């Protein structure tokens, strides 16, 4: 069978020109930490009181944690970004509910002292999350934190 040089070059071009698949962020704490560092964040790691991994970081002057859930053999099915703010006066439940009624991203609540917390959950089960999507997730978390700080007059 005679092969056409054009057909061979077309097939070669398809393989050579194919873009690499984007990296996936799976529920492996090492991978999540690496992606956060690639985003430019300093990240430290410890263990929470449930024995699961926990990351600590800072973005635009605000400390936050990343909690891991549903962990089996170092792979977790979801993560949660979380930040709390120690207020001089307790915030009202009405005020925090206003955030939850009017904002799509970031779930807010009050601790037992009336201090506000903001959380953002990310599902990493099965195939995880594409690298670009995870970068966008971190950027969205940055925006949510900024808006929340304004909302609570921080």
UniProtKB/TrEMBL annotation:
Keyword Signal carried by entry: yes
Signal peptide location: 1-23
InterPro entries with a match to the protein in the record: Put_sensory_transdc_reg_YbjN
Keywords assigned by UniProt, alphabetized: Signal
Pfam families: YbjN
Domain of life where this protein originates: Bacteria
Name listed for the protein in its UniProt record: Putative sensory transduction regulator
Organism expressing this protein natively: Rhodobacter maris
